């Protein structure tokens, strides 16, 4: 039988309290306690770091940061260690640096000195870097502090418009949801400029690989909308045997490309997607990369680039960490169960374009499907309905941010089954119904089967002959005795489950 752990139980209780309760009740009790009673309450230090980092206001975080910094001078080593562990969660830039440096010099504890260095690696700045360059710390701390200083002085940006010929040394790997590969390949083929600059060489589940034939820019790659992430990998495998040394050499060899594509210091992070957390391996690779290419700075906290190291072979791929994705920066806010934008873009491509397009999304959510349709052509009227008043507000904000202000737009907070009450949804007035209905996973749905059948009926009523219904169908249902002809069906991965992306065409009565 597992023994009870009062300290862990205490933390679990504190972890679920609000910032206000922690600050006005638990922190004063800890501050006023003495001796063993104070040590028994030390979990509040850890809880403040976690809870305030997740839900604190800027003012609350500033107060908590000041309190934690003060604890670095506490007479109890355990409390100082807890403060050192909590402080990086709330710190932006060097915080408590002088206290940490003084503690490193005066503490007789090797364990505490190690904790000081770990904390400085996360939040240290110029003073710590100067001390590290003087040889006062472990050699590996220098590169971490250089990344901190570079991040604080000039966060840097990725140059999207820089066109470089060095891309021809690389494979470009477009990752997408399973089932959307053909939409991405079609999107490439339809762009005559891109089609002339690279060719598709391979595809796999959720992956399309292309090889550049001419100079390219990241902005040209991000003109495509049906992929989730783009990565770059050497065209030919390295002759070196697989291992951390060959990985470090491969990363160092990309220094020139990364410097061209980065405005400011090149900061990167390492991930092992199929191997779990690999802290020691990541540190070993980062140390070796720093020896080979000191202009590349490993920065796990806030990097511009990410290297993904996969499998026993050590295959390598690097990808830009763009937040937000420049293609979907219009998403000012989202709703629960909002559509994945590349899926919405694929749906818009599947729908195609008709003259004098009138588009209705019965479950408009955050407006992503309407936006992707609006971005594809002119002369469109957009109509969105949703039961949620908040969704209507959010959809309007996103549509305006996407530049769809000039497109005639109607948004109504109403049940889609009451479509006859919405102007523009008269019988035979719509050319396209496009939607990603609620699946009942994150948004409760009392009778999903009835909702899907009602969607078929409403779409059939408002669509003109030749109009299309494009939607993600979560159930094995088809329209019953309705003039809707199935034209396309494809299983698509929605992250945790599969549905079918379907397209129906409205036949004449």
Mean pLDDT: 91
- How does CATH name the architecture of the largest domain? 3-Layer(aba) Sandwich
Number of helices: 20
- Which superfamily, in CATH terms, is the homologous superfamily of the largest domain? Vaccinia Virus protein VP39
Residues in β-strands, percent: 15-25%
The number of domains is: 3
Shape: globular
> How would you write the strand order of the largest sheet?
13-12-11-14-15-17-16
Q: Give the low-confidence spans.
A: none
Helix vs. strand class: alpha/beta
**How many strands in all?**
17
Helix content: 40-55%
Q: Quote the distance from N terminus to C terminus.
A: 71 Å
Describe this structure in words.
- This protein is α/β, with parallel strands linked by helices and about 500 residues long.
- It folds into three domains: about 150 residues; about 160 residues, VC0802-like; about 180 residues, Rossmann fold.
- It is about 40% helix and about 20% strand.
- The chain starts with 5 loop residues before the first helix and ends with a strand.
- The relative contact order is 0.07.
């Amino acid at each position: 039988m597992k023994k009870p752990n009062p300290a862990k139980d205490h933390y679990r209780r504190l972890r679920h309290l609000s910032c206000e309760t922690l600050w006005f009740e638990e922190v004063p009790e800890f501050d006023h306690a003495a001796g063993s009673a104070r040590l028994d309450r030390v979990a509040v230090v850890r809880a403040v770091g976690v809870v305030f980092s997740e839900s604190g206001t800027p003012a609350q975080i500033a107060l908590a940061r000041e309190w934690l910094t003060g604890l670095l001078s506490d007479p109890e080593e355990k409390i100082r260690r807890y403060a050192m562990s909590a402080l990086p969660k709330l710190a932006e830039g060097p915080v408590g640096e002088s206290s940490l440096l003084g503690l490193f010099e005066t503490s007789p504890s090797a364990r505490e000195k190690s904790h000081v260095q770990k904390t400085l690696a996360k939040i240290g700045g110029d003073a710590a870097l100067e001390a590290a360059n003087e040889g006062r710390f472990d050699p590996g701390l220098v590169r971490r502090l250089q990344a901190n200083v570079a991040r604080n002085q000039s966060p840097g940006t990725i140059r999207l418009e820089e066109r470089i010929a060095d891309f021809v040394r690389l494979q470009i790997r477009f990752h997408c949801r399973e089932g959307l590969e053909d939409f991405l390949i079609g999107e490439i083929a339809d762009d005559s400029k891109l089609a002339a600059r690279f060719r598709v060489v391979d595809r796999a589940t959720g992956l399309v690989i292309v090889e550049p034939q001419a100079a390219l820019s990241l902005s040209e790659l991000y003109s495509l909308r049906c992929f989730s992430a783009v990565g770059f990998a050497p065209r030919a495998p390295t002759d070196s045997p697989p291992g951390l040394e060959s990985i470090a050499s491969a990363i160092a060899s990309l220094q020139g490309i990364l410097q061209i594509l980065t405005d400011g210091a090149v900061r990167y992070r390492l991930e092992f997607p199929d191997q779990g957390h690999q802290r020691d391996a990541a540190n070993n690779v980062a140390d070796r990369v720093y020896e080979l290419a000191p202009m590349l700075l490993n920065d796990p906290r806030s990097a511009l680039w990410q290297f993904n190291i996969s499998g026993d072979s050590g295959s390598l791929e690097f990808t830009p960490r763009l937040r937000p994705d420049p293609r979907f920066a219009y998403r000012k806010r989202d709703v629960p169960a909002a559509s994945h934008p590349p899926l919405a873009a694929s749906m818009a491509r599947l729908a195609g374009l008709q003259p004098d397009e009138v588009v209705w999304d019965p479950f408009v959510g955050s407006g992503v499907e309407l936006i992707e349709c609006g971005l594809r052509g002119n002369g469109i009227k957009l109509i969105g309905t949703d039961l949620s008043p908040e969704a209507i507000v959010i959809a309007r904000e996103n549509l305006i941010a996407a530049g769809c202000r000039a497109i005639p737009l109607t948004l109504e907070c109403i049940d889609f089954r009451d479509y006859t009450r919405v102007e523009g949804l008269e019988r035979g007035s719509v050319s396209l119904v496009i939607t990603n209905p609620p699946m009942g996973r994150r948004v409760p749905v009392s009778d999903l089967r009835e909702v899907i059948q009602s969607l078929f009926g409403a779409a059939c009523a408002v669509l003109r002959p030749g109009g299309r219904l494009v939607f993600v169908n979560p159930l094995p249902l088809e329209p019953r005795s309705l003039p809707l002809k199935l034209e396309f069906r494809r299983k698509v991965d929605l992250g945790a489950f599969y549905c079918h992306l379907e397209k129906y065409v409205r036949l004449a009565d």
